[in-house]
Design a protein that fits this description.
about 900 residues, alpha+beta, Phosphorylase Kinase, domain 1, Neuraminidase, six-stranded antiparallel beta sheet, five-stranded antiparallel beta sheet
């Protein structure tokens, strides 16, 4: 029975349980004599009755009492109270290596420091004749003063060290016979598994498995059963460290390989020599380490001279960096490994413009998640492991976007159907954590805290990843700042501080440093909408390049100079940049893919009748009711902003700029007489609605601002009284909704407001009906509902549809199928209900499904008034199938500059 708080073991008072192992329980306790907090390990009565277990417990006491080393947890006292035997040790403040490895591999410098400390501890134990026999991550504690080796409960002392009596000899022999498989299977040497004698070289084998796991983040030997795991340890070799973790010096491959030799005679013969080798790798270059490995007989003779030489070199390098003002993390000498991943032919991305949330690399650097649409038209999350050539869909992530990883790389969180969810990659069963429709990119901290934005404008919130709950604010709005939104958080290495993007009134967005402990956020970068930390650098977009600048994580300040690592980056409609990076050094990005398109007149077969203007980067074309003009949102290459331009279709596509405000102007709809245009423009970080004359004359009239929404206008009633628009995911608890804006009152009214996504509403020519799309069936379909009255809706599409449009006599509807084909459907709305007739497949649009990626890209086509001609926006680049590029060990790119 566990000891209760207040129980006394001699002078020690139990405070609380700390944990339990195979043969002992550990408690926090107070030494009443010295008034200090200690850790007490007890042998429970059920084990104490067994002489075998009691002997093992006493053996740990004897082993610890003879060891005095800074990397070994010392023994304060040993005692017995009634039937309870106990050991007293200091209470170590820190975390186990096992817990740390759940967050991925250790940085190289830290891994070498921890490994060297463990090797020194083993060397001290081996000199005392003690073999640990149970070296594993759970028995190493990482403290501020270094790694501490503990739990010598399975330690074995040599017969000549323990005693020379026959009784002692019998004890040792019994342990070998009964306990040959004692310890943790994953880290045991082959001779232990075979039941033969274990010696110091068995600890060196276990040390090799530890070192491998610290460097790579994966176990050296893995299998689905104990039998196959034993076979792996006895027969197979793990992949080289440099293959799994390219940033590791090549000399470590030889060190690990020699530790893991199957024959003990082929391993390092002493932990002291092993510790020397690790110090060599940590202090010298890879080339020097490799050379030293082949000249082991002279290592100790040249060591002092080498240290002096390296110190001089380091001093000269430091002075040189100071003169250039380039203090910060030094570019590594190892190589970056770069590759591209083209999407399979049956997949495409959510939209033609990439931005935040399209992909996310795992913290361990072994895989990444991306968002794509499958042949059925269903968007979901996909997983690509670097060692695999194929991507696989992640179960439970239908309609998911904005994915981000757990620190252990085993789970992801994402938003779908207006909810923040998490899913384990192995189970595929999603758990709803909170209501949210606005997560662009969240963050998952090492303590299980998730940061996310619940709405497009407002604060960041926090919630526990362990269970659903009520989110609470994680940030505050500075007084008088006029700050309008905060989003895209990402944790810094200490797990308490985090980066996030924020915007203030009339000012560009910027990057701030916040803290889970509260307090006002610290401004870091102005005019930057997205940044991420990795490997000592802050990565962010400058113009059309991805740059890295040294970042001091103790003072939260940028240092040195920014260096370009990727040129011609795809920056997306919101100019956030198509990139994501992990702390382990995996960078994922997309190059600008030449998203130019050509406006064309085509007939009902798709045959091109004429081209309109020259190819440009344009989206969301809209056709005037008289078919004489068209408006489109065109990217200005110099300013990197989008403006509305008007094409004169009667003059071969001569175009005139309509807008030139500092932000983006994107979607547009025409009045019935083609004299006015309503469009959406970025204002305070949101898309608001504005009206102006299509000739460009006169002033701009704000129609609807604020409301914490992105607003996408889609249709203007023929009588000019009402406007249809839908809101972005931001600001709604029920996904996207369809709204009507009476221009007389300018007070929006929700007309399709459910838990499903309704969008792209279009008035019929007589304004009696509204065609729109909704995913209430599980995927986007086309419906028609009355604009007034209580008559029910009618489903038009059969197997999915988006981008609905009326013919001007209201006798035909058009929409795009999931396979990008334009379809015409006969309809009759002259009665009290709409009658749906035959469908007529027309032609392939060769364009992406319009969906969310940064901003909504709008329709790809418009139907002329007679239904015999269509204005088509034909993409000329790779568009929504642009390859993903990923780089292992991205900091090595800096050495090329």
């Amino acid at each position: 029975m566990p000891l209760q708080p207040g129980t006394r073991l001699g002078p020690y008072e139990i405070v609380a349980p700390l944990g339990a192992g195979g043969m002992g329980e550990v408690y926090r306790a107070r030494d009443t004599r010295l008034d200090r907090t200690v850790a007490i390990k007890i042998l429970p009565a059920v084990f104490a009755a067994d002489p075998h277990f009691r002997d093992r417990f006493d053996r740990e006491a004897r082993a610890l009492s003879g060891l005095d080393h800074p990397n070994i947890c010392p023994l304060y006292d040993v005692g017995r109270h009634d039937d309870t035997s106990f050991l007293v040790m200091p209470l170590l403040e820190g975390e186990s290596l096992a817990a740390r490895l759940q967050r991925g591999p250790l940085p190289l410098e830290e891994a070498l420091a921890v490994a060297t400390g463990i090797a020194d501890a083993l060397a001290r134990a081996h000199r005392a004749g003690i073999v640990h026999r149970d070296l594993k991550p759970a028995n190493v504690i990482l403290t501020k003063t270094g790694a501490k080796l503990l739990d010598f409960g399975l330690a074995k002392q040599r017969v000549d060290v323990v005693a020379s009596s026959s009784a002692s000899l019998a004890t040792v022999q019994n342990l070998t016979a009964q306990g040959s498989i004692l310890g943790t299977l994953q880290y045991m040497a082959p001779e232990q598994l075979e039941g033969t004698e274990a010696d110091a070289r068995s600890d060196i084998f276990a040390f090799g498995t530890l070192l491998y796991e610290m460097l790579t983040g994966r176990k050296a030997f893995e299998a689905k059963s104990h039998a196959s795991l034993i076979a792996a340890i006895l027969e197979r070799e793990p992949p080289p460290v440099s293959q799994v973790q390219p940033v590791a010096p090549p000399a470590l491959d030889r060190i690990v390989r020699k530790c893991l030799a199957k024959d003990p005679d082929n391993r390092w013969q002493s932990a002291a020599d092993l510790a020397d080798e690790l110090r060599w790798v940590a202090s010298a270059s890879s080339v020097a380490a490799s050379a030293a490995t082949t000249r082991r007989g002279s290592v100790h003779a040249v060591w002092p001279w080498l240290v002096a030489f390296m110190s001089v070199v380091l001093l000269i390098a430091t002075v040189g960096l100071a003169r250039r003002g380039a203090f910060g993390p030094a570019p590594p000498e190892s190589h970056a490994v770069m590759s591209t991943y083209p999407l399979p032919a049956d997949l495409h991305f959510f939209g033609p413009s990439s931005g935040l949330g399209r992909f996310a690399p795992s913290p361990d650097g072994r895989m990444f998640v991306f968002q794509a649409v499958d042949p059925s038209g269903t968007p979901r999350l996909w997983l690509r492991r670097l060692e695999s050539l194929e991507a696989t869909p992640i179960p439970g992530t239908d309609r998911g976007f904005g994915a981000f990883w757990s620190p252990d790389s085993r789970s992801i969180a994402f938003t779908a159907n207006g909810q923040l969810k998490r899913v384990d990659l192995t189970s595929g069963v999603p758990t709803v954590l909170a209501e949210s429709t606005a997560v662009i990119r969240g963050a998952w901290g090492p303590d299980g805290t998730i940061l996310f934005n619940r709405e497009r404008a407002g604060l960041l919130y926090r919630i526990s990843a362990a269970e659903p709950g009520t989110p609470v604010p994680a940030t505050s709005l500075p007084r008088g700042s006029g700050q309008t939104w905060q989003n895209t958080p990402s944790f810094l290495p200490d797990g308490r501080h985090f980066l996030f993007a924020g915007a203030r009134q009339n000012l560009p967005s910027g990057i701030y440093v916040g803290s889970l402990d509260g307090g006002e956020a610290k401004p870091l970068l102005s005019g930057v909408p997205n940044a991420a930390y990795s490997q000592g650098y802050l990565l962010f977009v400058r113009d059309s390049a991805l740059v890295a600048q040294p970042f001091d994580t103790s003072r939260f300040e940028l240092t040195g100079q920014a260096s370009t690592i990727v040129e011609d980056l795809e920056i997306g409609l919101a100019r956030t940049g198509a990139f994501a990076v992990s702390e382990s050094g995996l960078l994922v990005f997309q190059h600008a893919h030449g998203s130019q398109s050509q406006l064309e007149w085509v007939d009902r077969t798709g045959a091109v009748l004429s081209k309109i203007g020259e190819p440009v980067d344009q989206i969301a074309p809209s056709l005037s009711p008289d078919d004489a003009r068209a408006a489109a949102s065109i990217l200005d290459p110099a300013r990197r902003t989008r403006d509305i331009w008007v094409y004169d279709l009667k003059r071969g596509g001569v175009r005139t700029r309509l807008t030139s405000e500092p932000g983006d102007e994107i979607h547009s709809v025409w009045s019935a007489d083609a004299s006015m245009i309503v469009y959406s423009a970025v204002h305070d970080g949101l898309l608001d609605l504005y009206k102006r004359a299509s000739s460009g004359a006169g002033r701009v009239d704000p129609l609807l601002e604020g409301a914490n929404w992105n607003k996408y206008p889609t249709s203007w009633s023929r009588d000019g009284s009402s406007l249809l628009f839908f809101n972005g995911f931001a600001g709604s608890r029920t996904s996207t909704d369809l709204w009507l804006l009476p221009l007389a009152t300018r007070t929006p009214v929700a007309i399709a407001h459910t838990e499903f996504a309704e969008r792209s509403g279009r008035f019929s020519w007589d304004a009696r009906w509204i065609a729109y799309e909704s995913d209430e069936s599980g995927r986007a379909e086309i419906y028609v509902m009355p604009s007034r009255g209580d008559a029910g809706k009618v489903r038009v599409s059969r197997n999915g549809g988006v981008e609905v449009c009326w013919r001007n006599d209201d006798r035909e509807l058009y929409y795009v199928t999931p396979d990008d084909r334009l379809v015409a459907v006969d309809v009759d709305g002259r009665g009290s209900t709409v009658t749906v007739g035959e469908s007529h497949p027309l032609f392939a649009t060769h364009g992406p499904v319009a969906a969310y990626s940064g901003f909504y890209p709008g329709f790809r086509y418009q139907a002329a008034s007679d239904g015999q001609h269509f204005l088509l926006n034909t993409p000329l680049g790779t568009g929504d199938r642009s390859p993903i590029t990923f780089v292992v060990n991205w900091p090595a790119l800096l050495s090329r500059r």
